[in-house]
Amino acid sequence: MRWWALVVLSAAQLMVVLDATVITIALPYAQRDLAITDGDKQWAITAYTLIFGGLLLLGGRMADYLGRRRIFLVGLVGFAVASALAGLAQNTVQLFLGRGLQGAFAALLAPAALSLLSVIFTDVRERARAFAVFAGITAGGVAFGLIVGGALTEFASWRWTLLINTPIALVAVAGALAVIARDIPAPRTGGYDLPGAVTVTLGLVAIVYGFSRAAEHGWLAPSTLGLLGAGSALLLVFVVIEARSTNPLLPLRIPGEINRGGALLTALLIPIAMFAMFLFLSFYYQNTLGYSPLEAGIAFLPFPIGIGIAAGITSSLLPKFGPRPVMVVGALLGVIGLVWLAQLSYGDGYALSVLPAQVVMAFGMGPLFVGMQAVALHQVRAEDSGVASALLNAAQQVGGAVGTALLTTLSVQAAEHYVAEHPTVDHLVERASIYSYDVAFYVGAGFFLAAAVVIALMIKDKPENLIEGDERATAAPIVV
Q1: What are the Major facilitator superfamily (MFS) profile domain coordinates in residue numbering (predicted)?
Q2: Chain centroid offset of residue 138 CA
Q3: DSSP per residue over 157-184, as a string?
Q4: Tens digits of per-residue pLDDT, 66-97?
Q5: 311 lies in which domain range?
Q6: Does some domain include residue 434?
Q7: Which terminus of the chain is more solvent-facing, meaning fewer CB atoms within 10 Å of its CB: N or C?
Q8: Which of 58, 6, 318 has the alpha carbon at shortest distance from 197?
Q9: pLDDT tens digits along 140-168
């Protein structure tokens, strides 16, 4: 029954991850049908990521206090309704409202699913295998979203990139009711820490939105600096509130433990590097190689396949060697993969220049995501598993926003510099674009290298520590 529960939880996680990218390829078609202006089209993506990232911690704590399965089911039903609203939208407001609601219910789904996983699988070897499946879906779902988005847009309609979630979510509801036992919520002695909930939600929204504005308006724009400054100040206030609260939304012992802190910092750094690959290879496939949206999505297919294989291998290595060596190797493979991609030049093709690097990166991401999830939730008390899962998701969301803004800005500047330095070269636009991608790949490799250093210095768990930690952790009571 546990493994059927993993199927249901994985399906829900796949929906959440897919929806961050599945509409990317479909967006031009939605823009045409709904007469969305160029200035507003970003909200089809930003409305989802902003609300999702901002509400994650609150959603995780609600899962702890109200029951993980209950919040998981509420998230699934809400996600189904929101997806239908967005997919059937007749105007801009309805689309953006639906996307925002998707983000809100995803903020319930994601931490509830990961915390259920952590309390259902308590044996260290079974947990490693379960995390391997979950990690493969989390890391590969971004690429799979591009494939699904391209196929649905090309052969059906852009609306189906959203509507397809509704039947999947409803099937997952039936599956959850059948195979996931009801858990007993954590006892609560105080209120919901509303000051903490408000400050962290507004702080995360401001940070994520600030980075998304930086990609469009620049890092020194008053709006960018104002949002990032306000978000940082609110998060600082949140830390003060949590330190003084008798019933904190986020007990500071969760990020304060060195291994867990290292995993969370890794979760912040890795998406920055990942976006170097996804974002700019997507441009390269379509703008340079002339691939159609579906062909571009298929070109990414080796990535999720490689992650799945690597995650399966990692699940057997983790109990033997512990997380640090496998995660360091994963990060270094990420460095090699992006440095390899950074050698792209005009006239190169997919098979020899891109595919091998993509496979190397995929084999690095598998160990990173499996180890990261295992360490981030190790020895977490059952009553804190929801908010710990939410913190891991929030770190990844912020990292993704940072990666998009930072690498987009740097690549634009690199392209302008190349044009200024080589005004007479043939195929100038194409060469400048590839040069800008190479710069982004090198920067992404730097973040992989930084993650390797963090892992080596902060993640100290041995295999026996993980086993003992699982035995000491109090599993959430499950009742039939």
Answers
A1: 5-463
A2: 7
A3: -TTHHHHTHHHHHHHHHHHHHHHSPEEP
A4: 888 999 999 999 999 999 999 999 999 999 99
A5: 250-472
A6: yes
A7: C
A8: 58
A9: 676 677 777 778 877 888 899 899 889 98
Pick the last residue of a domain from 132, 153, 181.
181
Q: Same structural domain for residues 242 and 260?
A: no
Q: Rounded to an integer, what distance in angstroms lies between the CA atom of residue 154 and that of residue 150?
A: 6
Burial of 84 per CB tally in 10 Å (0-12, 13-18, 19+): middle
401: nearest Cα among 53, 96, 22: 53
Count how many domains the chain has: 3
What is the chain's Cα-based Rg? 21
**The two structure tokens encoding residue 367:** 């160990």
Q: Are residues 348 and 361 in the same domain?
A: yes
Residue 141 and residue 242 share a domain: no
Q: Give pLDDT tens digits for 112-142.
A: 888 888 778 777 677 777 777 777 777 667 6
Say if residue 344 is in the same domain as residue 458. Answer: yes
Give 478's strand partners.
183
Question: Mind listing the pLDDT tens digit for each residue in 413-468?
Answer: 888 899 998 888 888 888 998 999 999 999 999 999 999 999 999 998 766 555 44
Q: Which residues contact 420 (CB under 8 A, 6 or more apart)?
A: none
Note whether 239 and 269 are same-domain residues.
no
Residue that the structure tokens 């908010």 belong to:
387
CA distance 414 to 431: 11
